[in-house]
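About this split. The held-out portion is used to measure sequence recovery: a designer receives only the C-alpha cells and must propose an amino acid at every position. Recovery is the fraction of positions where the proposal matches the reference. Here is one held-out target exactly as it appears in the evaluation file.
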C-alpha cells in the first residue's frame, strides 16, 4: 500500500431478535405487539434473503424498503460485503419446529453469494498515477544530469561507459572488502589461539614452581592478549611508516632531480641509516636474550613480567619509529623467536608429561610399599603369636606330665565328648546339605513348571486379545449391517411415502379429469340439445366444436367467428388453449400438493404439541408420586404396601413417558422426511410457469384462479355458517344448563328457610328472582314474545325487529347472571397441619370465587374487596365467610380497589368506578384519567373486553385514599391525579417522574398535610407534601437516593420508616425523618418483589414475590425471620386489617393468614419453610 493510500471498511454486527409464537409465549398487550413487529421484520428479511439467494428470483425486485431492518441491512446483505449468519437453536424436542424453521432460514441465507471488490475514488486513483509518473521522470532526469544516460550521435539513448566502469569497480571493492573482513577474522582467531597457548605455557611453569593460581593465570592471559594486540598495532604502524618513507624518498628524489630550492637536506632526514640499522640489530639481540632468559627461568612474578613486557614493547615501538628500513630482518628474528618459543613450549609440555608419569609411578611405588609393609607387619604378628602359642603348649605339656592320670582321663573324655558333638553337627550339616540338594532339584522342577505356566498364561492372554478383537470386529460388522438395514428401511419408507404421495396426486388428478370430463360431457349434451333444431346447417355443425372451444376460453366481449372465418386461425387457437389448460392443471396440482403438505405438517405439529403436553403432565405426576413415595418410605414399615403400589404406578408412568418420547421422535422424523420430500418434489416452478404465459394464457389462468377463489370463498362461508350454527347450539346448551342451575337454585332457596347459613348465601340473590323468571320464560318463546315480555325500561323495546345477534347476547348475559347467582364465591377454612401449628404465620382461610387471576385486594375488619382479571370486583363478608356481591361491567382487568365509607373505588384501564354498596351494587360516578367525571356507569355499553385506551387517557395503575377519606390519588401515566371526593372534581397533579407511576401510598403528616410517596418505573421514589385544598401541579419535596436498579412495585409506610420493593429483587428501608437510606437487602427474593405489607400487632414486614414465596423481615433490622410457599403462582397484592393478612395471587384465590404472638424471636420461624403443600 502506498504512502497516501488508505483502505476503509465497515463491520456491521446485528443481533436479530428471535421470532415469537404468541401461542407459546402467551404474550399480551405491548409484549404481543412487540412480538408481532419482530415477526414482521423477520418476514421482510426472509423475503430479501429469498430474493438474493434463490437463483430463480435473482432477476426480481429485492424488497429492501419493506421494513427498517432490511433497509439498515441493505449494504450487508446485497452490497459489496460478505455476510455471515449465526443461528441459535435449542436441543430440546419441545422446540423442534422452531429449530427446523431456524435452520431453513439460515440455509436460505447461506445461498447469498457476494463478490467483494475495492471501491476506489477516481480522483485519488488519478493523483496516485500522476505521482508515480513524476517520480519516474525525476529519476530519469537525475540519470541524465549525472551522466549515466547520454544521447548518441544517432539520437538513441545509451548508458555511459564511466557508469559501467564505476559499477565494476564498486563490485570489486565490495569483494575485496569481504576478503579483508574474512582475513581480519582469521587473524583474530590466530591471535586468540596464540594467547591461549602462551597463557597455558606460563601456567605450567608456575605450576612447576608451585606459585600458580587461578587469578595469576587469568592475569597472565590478559597480559599476553594485550602484548599480542600491541604487536599487531606495531606491525600495522611499521607498514604505514614504510609506505610513508617510500613516498618521502620518491618526493626527495623528484626535488633533487629538479634542483629546486625546496629540496630536503640530509640533516632533515635524521641520522645515518647504517648506524640506525646496527643499533636496531643490537637492540633486537638484547631483547631476544631477555626473552630467552625470561622463558627459561619463568620464576618472576606476573606483575614484574608484565612491566618488563610493557617496557620492551615501548622500546620496540620507539625503535620502530627510529628505524624502519631493516624491519624485514627484525621480522625474521621475531619469527625465529616465536619458533624457539614454540619449541620451548613443546619441550615444556613433554617434560610436564614426563613429570606427571614419574609422579604417578612414585605414587604407585609408595602404595606398593605401604601394602608390603602392612603384609610384613601382619606376618611378624603371626610369627609372634605362633611363638607365644608354642611356648604355652610347651608349658602345658610340662604341666600335664607332672599331673595325675585322672585329669588326663577327664581331658580325654571332654575331648571325646566334643568330638561326638562335632560328629553330630557334621551329620546334621550333611543332612541339611542333602535336603538343600533335594530342594535345589525341586526348585529347578518348580522353575520349569512356572515357566511352562507363564507360557500358557501368555498364550491365553494372546488368545483373549484375539477373541476380543474378533468380537469387536463382529460387533462393528453387526452395527454397520444394522445401520445399513435402518437406512434401507428409511429409504423404503421414504419411497413408500413418495409412492403414496404420487398415488394421491394421481387420484386427485384422476378425480379432476373425471370432473372435467363430466363437465365437458354436460356442456356437449347441452349444446347438442341447442343444435338439434338447426341440424340442416352443416357448416354450423362443422364449426361448432371450434367455436365452443374458442368461446369457452375467451372474454365475454369477444366475437364468435362463423364458418366464413379463415381456416388457418383455428389450429392456433386450439393449440394455445390446450397449452393453457396444461399449465393450469400443473398449477392446480402444485397448489393441491402444497395445501396437502402444509396440512400434513400442521397435523403433525399438532400431534407433537399434544404429545409434549402429555409428557409434561406425566412428568409432573411422576414427580408428585416420587415425592409421595419418599414421604411414605420415610414413615417406616407402615407404608410398604403403599410404596409398592406407588412403585408400580411410577413404572407404568415411565413406560408411558418412554412411549411418548418414541412417538415424539417418530413425529419429528416424519416432519423432517416431509420437508425433504417437499424439497425433492418441487418439480413445478410456479413463477417460471407464470412467467412463460402469453396474454391469452394469462387470461385463461386468471379466469380459473377467479373461479377457484370463488369456490374456496363459498366453502369458507359454508364452514363459517356451520360454525355459527354449532355455536348457537352450544349457547342453547349453556342456556339449558343455566335453567337447570336456576331450578337447583330454587330448590336450595326452599331449603334455605331451615338453614340460616344457606339463607345468608342466597339473601342477595332473592332480589333478582322476579326479574329472572321473565327472562327465563322468554328464552323459549318466539321473538315476538320476547318483545312483549321485556319491560319498558329494557333497551330491547326500542328495536322493531328481532336481531339474532342481540338474542345471542341476551342469552349470554342470562347465562352470566345465572352463574353469578349460583356460583358465588365462598371463604373456606384451611385445616392446620402438624408442621405449621407452631408457626407464627398460619393460613386459616382461602377465598375462592374468581375465574381468573386476582390482581388486587383491600380489607376492613368486616369486609374484603378483591379485583381480578375476570373484570369483576367481589365483596366478601368476613363474618359469614360468603361473597356478598360482585361488581362487574369493567372494560378490562380490575387492577386496584379501595374502600372508604360505603364507597368502593375500582380501577380498570383508564377509568375509576365509584360504587355505592349500601343498598345495592350501583355505580354512581365514573372518573377518567384525564380529569373528566361522568355520572353513573360510563362503561355500561362495553360488553366485551376492551384493551385499547381512548385518546387523551392513560392507564391507571393504582389508587390510594388519604386517611380522612376525602382525597383520592390515582397513578395515571407518569403523574398522580388528585380528586376531591366531597365534590368529585379533579384538583391537581403530582408530577416529577420520568416513567409510569406503578405504586403509591398516602400517610398523614404531623402538620395536617398528606404525605404521598410514589414509586415509578424510572427506579426512583419521590415524596410529596400535599396541603388541604392544594391546586395545580405539585412538585416533589424529596427524591430518595440511591434509586433501585429496576422499577418499583410496592411501597408501604410504618411510623417513620418507608419500605420499598422493586423488580431488582431487593427491599430497601428509608428513614422519613432524615430522608436517607437506612438498610437494604439486595436479593431479598429470587424474583420481583411484587407486594409488601406490615403484619398487624408485630414488628414484622411481609413481602411477596412473583415466584409465590412469602418472606418475613424484622422491621428494625431487616433480618430474615423466615419464608414459606404462600401460593403456587405470583403474589400480586397484600392487605392487612387489625388481625389478619390477605394475599392475592394468580392462582385465582385469596389466602387469609393469622399472626400468632409476637415476631421478636426467630425460634418459631424454623418450621415455616415446610408449609407449602398444605397451604
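Reference sequence for scoring:
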Amino acid at each position: 500500500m502506498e504512502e497516501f493510500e488508505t483502505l476503509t471498511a465497515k463491520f456491521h454486527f446485528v443481533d436479530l431478535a428471535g421470532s415469537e409464537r404468541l401461542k407459546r409465549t402467551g404474550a399480551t398487550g405491548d409484549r404481543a405487539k412487540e412480538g408481532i413487529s419482530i415477526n414482521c421484520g423477520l418476514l421482510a428479511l426472509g423475503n430479501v434473503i429469498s430474493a438474493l439467494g434463490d437463483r430463480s428470483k435473482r432477476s426480481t425486485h429485492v424488497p429492501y424498503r419493506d421494513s427498517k431492518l432490511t433497509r439498515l441491512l441493505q449494504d450487508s446483505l446485497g452490497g459489496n460485503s460478505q455476510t455471515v449468519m449465526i443461528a441459535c437453536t435449542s436441543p430440546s424436542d419441545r422446540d423442534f419446529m422452531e429449530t427446523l424453521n431456524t435452520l431453513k432460514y439460515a440455509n436460505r441465507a447461506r445461498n447469498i453469494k457476494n463478490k467483494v471488490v475495492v471501491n476506489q475514488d477516481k480522483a485519488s486513483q488519478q493523483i496516485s498515477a500522476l505521482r508515480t509518473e513524476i517520480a519516474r521522470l525525476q529519476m530519469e532526469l537525475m540519470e541524465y544530469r549525472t551522466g549515466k544516460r547520454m544521447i548518441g550521435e544517432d539520437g538513441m539513448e545509451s548508458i555511459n561507459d564511466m557508469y559501467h566502469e564505476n559499477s565494476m569497480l564498486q563490485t570489486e571493492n565490495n569483494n575485496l572488502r569481504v576478503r579483508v573482513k574474512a582475513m581480519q577474522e582469521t587473524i583474530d582467531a590466530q591471535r586468540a589461539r596464540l594467547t591461549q597457548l602462551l597463557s597455558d605455557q606460563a601456567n605450567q611453569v608456575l605450576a612447576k614452581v608451585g606459585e600458580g593460581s587461578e587469578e595469576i593465570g587469568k592475569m597472565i592471559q590478559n597480559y599476553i592478549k594485550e602484548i599480542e594486540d600491541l604487536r599487531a598495532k606495531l606491525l600495522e604502524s611499521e607498514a604505514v611508516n614504510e609506505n610513508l618513507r617510500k613516498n618521502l624518498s620518491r618526493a626527495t628524489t623528484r626535488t633533487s632531480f629538479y634542483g629546486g630550492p625546496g629540496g630536503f637536506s640530509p640533516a632533515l632526514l635524521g641520522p645515518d641509516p647504517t648506524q640506525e640499522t646496527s643499533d636496531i640489530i643490537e637492540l633486537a639481540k638484547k631483547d631476544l636474550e631477555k626473552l630467552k632468559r625470561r622463558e627459561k627461568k619463568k620464576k618472576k612474578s606476573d606483575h614484574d613480567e608484565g612491566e618488563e613486557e610493557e617496557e620492551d614493547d615501548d622500546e620496540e615501538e620507539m625503535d620502530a619509529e627510529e628505524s624502519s628500513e631493516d624491519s624485514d630482518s627484525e621480522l625474521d628474528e621475531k619469527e625465529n623467536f616465536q619458533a624457539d618459543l614454540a619449541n620451548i613450549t613443546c619441550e615444556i609440555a613433554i617434560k610436564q608429561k614426563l613429570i606427571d608419569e614419574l609422579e604417578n609411578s612414585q605414587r604407585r611405588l609408595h602404595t606398593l610399599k605401604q601394602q608390603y609393609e602392612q603384609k610384613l607387619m601382619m606376618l611378624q604378628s603371626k610369627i609372634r603369636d605362633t611363638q607365644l602359642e608354642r611356648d604355652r603348649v610347651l608349658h602345658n605339656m610340662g604341666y600335664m606330665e607332672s599331673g595325675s592320670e585322672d585329669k588326663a582321663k577327664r581331658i580325654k573324655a571332654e575331648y571325646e565328648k566334643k568330638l561326638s558333638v562335632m560328629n553330630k553337627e557334621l551329620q546334621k550339616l550333611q543332612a541339611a546339605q542333602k535336603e538343600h540338594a533335594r530342594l535345589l532339584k525341586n526348585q529347578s522342577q518348580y522353575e520349569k513348571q512356572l515357566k511352562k505356566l507363564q507360557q500358557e498364561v501368555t498364550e491365553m492372554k494372546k488368545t483373549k486379545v484375539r477373541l476380543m478383537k474378533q468380537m469387536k470386529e463382529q460387533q462393528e460388522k453387526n452395527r454397520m449391517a444394522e445401520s445399513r438395514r435402518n437406512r434401507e428401511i428409511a429409504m423404503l419408507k421414504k419411497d413408500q411415502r413418495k409412492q403414496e404421495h404420487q398415488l394421491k396426486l394421481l387420484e386427485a388428478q384422476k378425480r379432476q379429469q373425471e370432473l372435467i370430463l363430466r363437465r365437458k360431457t354436460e356442456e356437449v349434451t347441452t349444446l347438442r340439445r341447442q343444435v338439434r333444431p338447426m341440424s340442416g346447417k352443416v357448416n354450423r355443425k362443422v364449426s361448432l366444436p371450434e367455436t365452443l372451444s374458442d368461446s369457452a376460453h375467451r372474454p365475454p366481449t369477444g366475437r364468435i367467428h362463423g364458418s366464413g372465418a379463415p381456416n388457418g386461425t383455428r389450429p392456433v387457437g386450439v393449440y394455445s388453449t390446450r397449452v393453457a389448460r396444461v399449465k393450469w392443471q400443473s398449477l392446480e396440482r402444485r397448489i393441491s400438493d402444497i395445501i396437502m403438505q402444509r396440512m400434513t405438517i400442521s397435523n403433525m405439529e399438532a400431534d407433537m404439541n399434544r404429545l409434549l403436553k402429555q409428557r409434561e403432565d406425566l412428568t409432573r405426576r411422576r414427580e408428585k408420586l416420587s415425592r409421595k413415595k419418599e414421604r411414605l418410605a420415610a414413615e417406616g414399615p407402615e407404608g410398604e404396601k403403599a410404596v409398592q403400589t406407588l412403585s408400580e404406578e411410577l413404572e407404568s408412568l415411565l413406560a408411558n413417558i418412554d412411549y411418548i418420547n418414541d412417538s415424539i421422535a417418530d413425529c419429528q422424523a416424519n416432519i423432517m422426511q416431509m420437508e425433504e420430500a417437499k424439497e425433492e418434489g418441487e418439480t413445478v416452478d410456479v413463477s417460471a410457469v407464470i412467467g412463460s404465459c402469453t396474454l391469452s394464457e394469462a387470461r385463461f389462468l386468471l379466469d380459473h384462479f377467479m373461479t377457484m377463489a370463488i369456490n374456496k370463498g363459498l366453502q369458507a362461508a359454508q364452514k363459517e355458517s356451520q360454525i355459527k350454527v354449532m355455536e348457537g347450539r352450544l349457547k342453547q346448551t349453556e342456556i339449558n344448563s343455566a335453567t337447570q342451575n336456576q331450578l337447583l337454585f330454587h330448590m336450595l332457596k326452599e331449603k334455605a328457610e331451615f338453614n340460616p347459613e344457606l339463607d345468608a348465601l342466597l339473601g342477595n340473590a332473592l332480589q333478582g328472582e322476579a326479574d329472572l323468571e321473565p327472562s327465563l320464560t322468554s328464552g323459549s318463546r318466539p321473538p315476538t314474545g320476547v318483545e312483549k315480555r321485556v319491560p319498558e325500561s329494557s333497551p330491547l323495546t326500542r328495536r322493531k325487529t328481532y336481531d339474532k345477534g342481540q338474542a345471542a347476547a341476551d342469552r349470554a348475559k342470562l347465562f352470566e347472571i345465572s352463574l353469578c347467582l349460583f356460583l358465588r364465591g365462598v371463604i373456606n377454612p384451611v385445616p392446620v397441619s402438624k408442621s405449621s401449628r407452631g408457626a407464627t404465620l398460619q393460613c386459616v382461610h382461602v377465598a375462592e370465587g374468581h375465574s381468573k387471576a386476582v390482581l388486587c385486594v383491600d380489607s376492613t375488619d368486616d369486609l374484603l374487596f378483591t379485583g381480578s382479571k375476570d373484570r369483576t370486583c367481589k365483596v366478601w363478608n368476613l363474618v359469614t365467610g360468603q361473597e356478598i356481591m360482585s361488581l362487574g361491567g369493567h372494560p378490562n382487568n380490575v387492577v386496584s380497589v379501595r374502600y372508604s365509607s360505603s364507597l368502593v373505588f375500582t380501577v380498570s384501564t383508564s377509568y375509576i368506578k365509584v360504587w355505592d354498596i349500601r343498598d345495592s351494587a350501583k355505580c354512581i360516578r365514573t372518573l377518567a384519567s384525564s380529569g373528566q367525571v361522568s355520572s353513573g356507569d360510563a362503561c355500561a355499553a362495553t360488553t366485551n373486553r376492551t384493551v385499547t385506551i381512548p385518546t387523551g387517557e392513560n392507564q391507571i395503575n393504582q389508587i390510594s385514599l388519604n386517611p380522612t377519606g376525602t382525597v383520592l390519588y390515582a397513578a395515571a401515566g407518569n403523574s398522580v391525579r388528585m380528586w376531591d371526593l366531597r365534590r368529585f372534581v379533579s384538583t391537581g397533579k403530582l408530577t416529577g417522574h420520568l416513567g409510569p407511576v406503578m405504586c403509591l401510598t398516602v400517610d398523614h403528616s404531623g402538620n395536617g398535610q398528606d404525605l404521598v410517596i410514589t414509586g415509578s418505573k424510572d427506579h426512583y421514589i419521590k415524596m410529596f407534601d400535599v396541603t388541604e385544598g392544594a391546586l395545580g401541579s405539585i412538585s416533589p419535596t424529596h427524591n430518595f437516593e440511591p434509586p433501585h436498579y429496576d422499577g418499583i412495585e410496592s411501597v408501604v409506610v410504618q411510623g417513620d420508616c418507608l419500605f420499598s420493593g422493586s423488580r431488582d429483587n431487593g427491599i430497601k428501608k428509608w428513614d422519613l425523618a432524615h430522608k436517607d437510606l437506612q438498610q437494604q437487602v439486595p436479593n431479598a427474593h429470587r424474583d420481583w418483589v411484587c407486594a409488601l405489607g406490615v403484619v398487624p400487632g408485630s414488628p414484622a414486614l411481609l413481602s411477596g414475590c412473583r415466584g409465590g414465596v412469602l418472606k418475613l423481615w424484622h422491621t428494625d433490622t431487616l433480618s430474615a425471620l423466615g419464608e414459606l410457599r404462600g401460593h403456587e403462582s405470583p403474589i400480586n397484592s397484600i392487605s392487612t386489617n387489625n388481625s389478619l393478612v390477605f394475599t392475592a395471587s394468580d392462582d385465582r384465590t385469596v389466602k387469609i393468614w393469622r399472626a400468632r404472638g409476637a415476631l421478636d424471636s426467630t425460634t418459631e420461624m424454623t418450621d415455616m419453610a415446610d408449609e407449602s403443600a398444605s397451604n
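Annotator remark: Residues 730-821 form one domain.
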